[in-house]
Every structure is written in structure tokens, then in C-alpha cells.
Design brief:
Layout lengths: L6 E10 L2 E11 L4 E5 L6 H8 L7 E6 L11 E4 L11 H11 L5 H10 L13 H14 L4 E5 L7 H18 L2 E5 L3 H7 L2 E6 L2 E7 H8 L3 H10 L1
Parallel strand pairs: 3-7, 3-8, 5-6, 6-7
Antiparallel strand pairs: 1-2, 1-4, 8-9
Bound molecules: adenosine-5'-triphosphate (ATP).
């Protein structure tokens, strides 16, 4: 297990023109955790995730991923964007073949096992999959890289409640099996409470709360949902 924090931010600020998406954010997430990133629309969640996978550069401050700048960690990070991008014209099996070609650390047996587990037809074109099936395919491709950090932007948004539960359970199993960390953004506090052991609450581009879910819940005496809603309302 890498000795570094999965994520470490100090004074992290990102500005788009005159609009601040993130302001002076500082937090640390130890490796091996499933981290929930929550906050209202426009809070800065996607911006933070895009900074973590090197798609954006900070305006000021620093963000380190597995102990290094994000650009140096691309091969060790698996990213599933909000719209779960897949290649519509390629079949499920072709996605796996492409993944194997592009990633030296590709785990074919993990990919095949997972495709069978979630009931994807290898011959089906990705453009014909449902939203939930596309999300499962995108997660499979990201996980088969055997990343040290999985970054998922609202991964369960397109899934029905039963599929969501299954998806979150397999995500936990994945993280344990890979010996990895995961960060996922979600509006669904119940999902976060079920699957995450660490939470970061953003609002207006600032960190309002961050820490271990069990500690936070124990010290507040209520549910995580009550706690987060209280923080966001204050
Ligand atoms: N490329 C961009 N150019 C200009 N402003 C941007 C850009 N990306 C994000 N923003 C602004 O930064 C702020 C944070 O956006 P971000 O997408 O990170 O929020 P979010 O928490 O992911 O929101 P949601 O829950 O709605 O997906 C918003 O005010 C948004 O308008």
C-alpha cells in the first residue's frame, strides 16, 4: 500500500474567469478509503475531481495525488466522468480489448469476471446499453487498469435503486480487492453513508467538513445525513 495520502490539498483554489469554483481548500485523505464528496449543485465537486485526475490545473495552492502532482499519477488513477463516456460504436468486448492495449497494468481476468458478474453481453455495442449498464462498463474499464485511486463523478446517478445498491457494493469490494482508494461524488447521502468511510463536504467552493464518517457520526450522535444537512444549512 503506498505510504502517501490518496489526496492531499493545501490552499487549493480554482478560478474560471472571475468565478471561484474552489477557494482555499485544505484536506487530507489517507490511502485505502472510499471517500464521499458531497455538496449542492455548483459546490465545486467536479472541479475538484478534474483537478485530481489532471484535467485542470489549480489557480493557486496544491493538490497531491498519491504523494505527487496529478499529472505524474495518470497511470495510477482510474477516472469515470459524470456522463460515463464509452465508445458507442464499440462492443463491450472491444472496450476490454482497447483497455488491454492502452494499459500495461490491465487485469483481463478482473475485467472478464466483472462483465459476467454484472450481466453485460460482450457482443453488445456500448451505444445500445442502458445508462446503468454504461456506468458498469465504464467502472469495469477504470478498475481493470488496477489503479491505486479510482475517481468517480456521480457514478450511480443513472442507476435504479437496486442497481445502485449492487454497484456500490461491488465498488467497495473492488477497492478492497485492488488495495486502492476511491473518491466518488454524489448527491445521495444515503449512498455515501452506506459505502464511504470518509467524507468531504463542499459548498460554495469551500470545504465545510471533512473526516472519517464513523468519527463524525459518533461525535454528532445523529445520522450522516442530518450532520451534512446541518453543516450545509449553517
Ligand atoms: N469550465 C468552466 N468554466 C466556467 N465556470 C465553470 C467551469 N466549470 C465549472 N465552473 C463553475 O464552477 C462552479 C463549480 O462547478 P462544478 O461543476 O465543480 O460543481 P459541482 O459541485 O460538480 O456541481 P453539480 O453537482 O451540479 O455537478 C460552478 O459555479 C460552475 O459554474
Amino acid at each position: 500500500m503506498p505510504p502517501h495520502d490518496a489526496l492531499h490539498a493545501e490552499g487549493l483554489t480554482k478560478r474560471f474567469g472571475r468565478r471561484y469554483a474552489l477557494t482555499d481548500c485544505s484536506f487530507a485523505v489517507p490511502h485505502g478509503r472510499v471517500v464521499g464528496l458531497v455538496g449542492p449543485n455548483g459546490a465545486g465537486k467536479s472541479t475538484l475531481l478534474h483537478l485530481a485526475c489532471g484535467l485542470l490545473e489549480p489557480t493557486s495552492g496544491t493538490l497531491r495525488v498519491l504523494g505527487a502532482p496529478p499529472a505524474a499519477r495518470l497511470a495510477r488513477v482510474g477516472f469515470v466522468a459524470q456522463d460515463t463516456p464509452v465508445y458507442a460504436g464499440l462492443s463491450v468486448a472491444e472496450h476490454l480489448r482497447l483497455g488491454a492495449k492502452l494499459n500495461p497494468s490491465w487485469d483481463a481476468s478482473l475485467a472478464n469476471r466483472r462483465v459476467a458478474q454484472v450481466g453485460l453481453d460482450p457482443a453488445q455495442k456500448a451505444g445500445r446499453l442502458s445508462g446503468g449498464q454504461r456506468a458498469q462498463l465504464a467502472l469495469t474499464v477504470a478498475a481493470a487498469k488496477r489503479p491505486d485511486l479510482l475517481i468517480l463523478d456521480e457514478p450511480a446517478a443513472a442507476l435504479d435503486p437496486l442497481a445502485r445498491q449492487g454497484f456500490l457494493r461491488t465498488l467497495r469490494e473492488f477497492v478492497a480487492e485492488l488495495g486502492a482508494s476511491a473518491v466518488l461524488s454524489s448527491h445521495l447521502l444515503g449512498d455515501i453513508e452506506r459505502v464511504c468511510d470518509h467524507v468531504i463536504v463542499l459548498s460554495g467552493g469551500r470545504v465545510r467538513m471533512a473526516g472519517d464518517v464513523r468519527d463524525l457520526v459518533a461525535s454528532s450522535g445523529g445520522s450522516l445525513e442530518d450532520l451534512v444537512l446541518g453543516v450545509l444549512a449553517s
